[in-house]
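Lecture 7 notes: from sequence to structure.

We start with a single chain of 379 residues. Read the sequence below before looking at the structure.
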Amino acid sequence: MANLNTKNLLRAVSLSAMMAVVACSPDGKTASPDGGARPSEEAQTQAPTPTMAETSDELILQARDFMEPIPMDAPAIEGVTSTPELVELGQMLFFDPRLSATHSISCASCHYPGLGGADNSPFSAGFHGERGGRNAPTVYNAVFNFVQFWDGRAKDLVEQAGGPLVNPVEMASPQAHVTEQILALPGYSPMFAKAFPGEKDPVSLENAQKAIAGFEATLITPNAPFDQFLRGDTNALTADQKAGLTLFIDTGCLTCHSGVNLGGTMYQKFGVFSDPGPVYLPPEDKGRGGVTGNAAEDYFFKVPTLRNIVETAPYFHSGSEPDLKRAVAVMAEVQLGQTLTPEEVDQITAFLGSLTGDQPELVIPQLPISDAKSPPPEK
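Now the structure, written as tokens:
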């Protein structure tokens, strides 16, 4: 297990990594000091604090220094007043393919609840079957990420929800079409009125984004074995999982994968110690640098969550690695400069299996029907 000097070193390395990211980031966004992503002060007051039992278990105490359990209830989103009516509306919009130009793609197409909130494909199929250039990240627990998308181009779930709707490679709907389509479906107008009471014109793209974000914020996966372990249940992890957690701490994985989401709190360069190679790191995709134009941020990406990772293959922004064990070995080599033994890879992978929490129980909603006045899909 990590001794006190190791823990202090990990703290220093983690802090240095986050400071380096801020220094090369024009927007200066990073994680909260304790590593947990905090969408807003309001979210902090509304998200319940899980009960943390007193313990003398050294491994639990070490893990608590850097990681937190997922709360049992969804946190609030800044600027969104979450109500049952808003969440219900957001769930319908999330599953409605008619918001896409061809009426064939919904948010759920790439972030399917039955597939870990992703789609288990290297690149998702969008408009007329065209493939995107990055692996679709899971929507599960995305509310805990400090920014959205691999390159952080969306500051929160509200902004993120609007991106795929109008992206020409994804749902490809002109902004005006989204509002037009919703207004043309009679069942939606009263739902928008209930979700956004008091607004003169509640049906809008902005409100659709808020509703989708409000629903997505509920897609959390609490109560994983690791969460139970953090709360004090020493028997929640197997011996192999505990050995994997020890390695996860000692090798420095938690330098980037910390907080509630074990990731999602910072940008980091892919290839800190060595170049992953073009298969894992396509040279044309410069990540954060492609957004900011700052060459110092080339090949920096938002550190992904490790929650439910056994369900979200393939891995990396390039979607190029289907084997989780291989992904663990690659990350140790290129990010930490370490070569793990097969046994160590197995143990860390076993620990990652303890990060699968309770999955959202969803019913695909009955959507408002189309009629003769509804805009037809693009051919």
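The mean pLDDT is 85. Keep this in mind for problem set 3.
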